């Protein structure tokens, strides 16, 4: 029989914070404000997991908590570096409320060339009954198929969203397990693109105006992670990486029990890594986060 240590990997000297869905996400997602809150907290939760597993920030910047028995990653607000990165998401609140945010992306690159992009995790937004997704620049991560999947996705109820959330996080976990480690000297930044209704030169707090979003090599491997829906927001997670192994299969049935930590039976992380301007980007994540 598996021991408790084999079932759940805890961080050193840490007991995961147990909580129900309602402690992190709103319950009634049919209400627009709750849907907005869910969308923001979802990308923040998933982004913390990505940054943790890809080793961009020190392990002390993260904590683990359970959401309805699913172990997830969160930023450790008591650590200044984590608090600074976490606050970058707060600037997206207005962009989501106003329907301005089209895509939020975590972009990885080898310093010092911030446009030599080798990996991206993207969150694409659709609002309400939006019948078409306008993309200002074909950045290479989306396909006609993925765009149609996003447009056709429908909100059913909160229970269904909970299931889709768990499924998407587990697929994200499997995707990252199929990636080679990032090379030393890597960094990451957040990039944002906007809908047609966003004012010219609109920039969320914590982001800089940028004439570029990101572009990917045509031969980069891609993965569609999943779609989650609130009552008024649909968010699709896509990934692309030159470090993604050829034999990855995100649709392969997971061997984890649905109530088991998605971090079970893993080895410890190794080699953590020290309009006119219609897009926005954050500073490099590691540049000011040495705390």
Automatic annotation (TrEMBL):
Protein location: Chromosome; Nucleus
Major site of localization recorded for this protein: nucleus
Positions of transmembrane segments: none
Record-level Gene Ontology MF annotations: DNA binding
Keywords, sorted A to Z: Chromosome, Meiosis, Nucleus
InterPro entries on file: HORMA_dom (IPR003511), HORMA_dom_sf (IPR036570), HORMA_MeioticProgression (IPR051294)
GO CC annotations on file: chromosome; condensed nuclear chromosome; lateral element; synaptonemal complex
Domain HORMA: 33-239
Signal peptide limits: none
Database matches in SUPFAM superfamilies: The spindle assembly checkpoint protein mad2
Region (Disordered): 259-291
A biological process from GO: synaptonemal complex assembly
PANTHER family (alphabetical): HORMA DOMAIN-CONTAINING PROTEIN 1 (PTHR48225), MEIOSIS-SPECIFIC PROTEIN HOP1 (PTHR48225:SF7)
Protein's name according to its UniProt entry: HORMA domain-containing protein
């Amino acid at each position: 029989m598996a021991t408790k240590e084999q079932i759940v990997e805890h961080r050193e000297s840490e007991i995961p914070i147990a909580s129900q869905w309602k402690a992190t996400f709103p319950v009634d997602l049919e209400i627009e404000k709750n849907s907005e809150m869910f969308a923001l907290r979802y990308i923040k939760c998933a982004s913390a997991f990505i940054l943790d597993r890809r080793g961009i920030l020190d392990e002390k910047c993260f904590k683990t908590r359970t959401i309805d028995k699913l172990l997830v990653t969160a930023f450790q607000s008591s650590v200044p570096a984590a608090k600074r990165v976490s606050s970058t998401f707060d600037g997206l609140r207005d962009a989501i409320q106003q329907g301005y945010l089209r895509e939020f992306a975590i972009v990885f690159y080898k310093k010092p060339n911030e446009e030599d992009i080798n990996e991206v995790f993207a969150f694409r937004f659709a609002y309400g009954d939006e019948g078409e997704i306008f993309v200002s620049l074909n950045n290479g991560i989306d396909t006609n198929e993925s765009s149609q999947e996003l447009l056709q996705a429908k909100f059913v109820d909160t229970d269904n969203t909970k299931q889709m959330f768990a499924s998407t996080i587990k697929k994200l976990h499997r995707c990252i397990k199929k990636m080679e480690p990032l090379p030393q000297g890597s960094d990451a930044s957040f990039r944002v693109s906007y809908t047609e209704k966003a004012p010219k030169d609109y920039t969320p707090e914590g982001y800089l105006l940028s004439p570029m979003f990101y572009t990917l090599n045509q031969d980069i491997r891609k993965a569609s992670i999943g779609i989650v829906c609130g009552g008024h927001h649909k968010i699709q997670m896509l990934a692309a990486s030159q470090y993604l192994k050829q034999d990855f299969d995100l649709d392969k049935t997971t061997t984890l029990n649905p109530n088991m930590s998605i971090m079970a039976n893993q080895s410890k992380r190794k080699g953590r890594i020290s309009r006119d301007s219609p897009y926005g980007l954050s500073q490099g994540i590691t540049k000011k986060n040495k705390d």
